[in-house]
Amino acid sequence: MKLDKATVGKRYAKALFELAVEDGQTDEIYQDLLSLRNIYKEIPTLGDLLSDVRLDKNEKRQLMDTLVEPFSGLMLRFLEIVFEYNRMDDFLLIFAEFERRYDDQKGLVIGTVTTAVPLNSQQKEALESKTASLLHYQQAKLEEKIDPTIIGGVIVEANHQVIDGSVKSRLDYLRAKLAR
């Protein structure tokens, strides 16, 4: 049975994260992954090139050797395994899951806040503090989105949870109650 890319990304990231924790290298591995993510952003086809079974193995090996040159130890071994199993095209999924686990370990939750109008810095800080408290984290980092259709209030999405305090959803709820 072939696994979907999201499952593969989660499994590889989980393995790398657990090994990094065991070796006390989570910060170093995270920094290595950040630098690799930047390379993938600069060369969006890199993962496909390194995973394409139709390409010449020697050419892929040379490219891989250049890519892994700055890395050693756990990170180097991990990248070699990912390369060997033709999963370099899943790197961004692996990184995203590792980053989620890393942030979780650091007590940080990442999410979005949708408002009808932009928040000022004090409002955003207060909302991040309240979100962190509600979700039992030390800190929250929320990316702002503006959507005038919510009329007012906020919608916070973080850690696979939605806190909908928008005026639009309250009005929709009242309409449904009155229609009964």
From TrEMBL:
Localisation: Cell membrane; Membrane
GO MF annotation list: hydrolase activity; proton-transporting ATP synthase activity, rotational mechanism
One Pfam family, short name: OSCP
SUPFAM superfamilies attached to this UniProt entry: N-terminal domain of the delta subunit of the F1F0-ATP synthase
Keywords from the named record: ATP synthesis, Cell membrane, CF(1), Hydrogen ion transport, Hydrolase, Ion transport, Membrane, Transport
Membrane topology note: Peripheral membrane protein
Matches recorded under InterPro entries: ATP_synth_OSCP/delta_N_sf, ATPase_OSCP/dsu
KW Cell division (keyword) present: no
GO cellular component, one term: proton-transporting ATP synthase complex
Function: F(1)F(0) ATP synthase produces ATP from ADP in the presence of a proton or sodium gradient. F-type ATPases consist of two structural domains, F(1) containing the extramembraneous catalytic core and F(0) containing the membrane proton channel, linked together by a central stalk and a peripheral stalk. During catalysis, ATP synthesis in the catalytic domain of F(1) is coupled via a rotary mechanism of the central stalk subunits to proton translocation.
Family assignment from sequence similarity: Belongs to the ATPase delta chain family.
Protein name according to UniProt: ATP synthase subunit delta
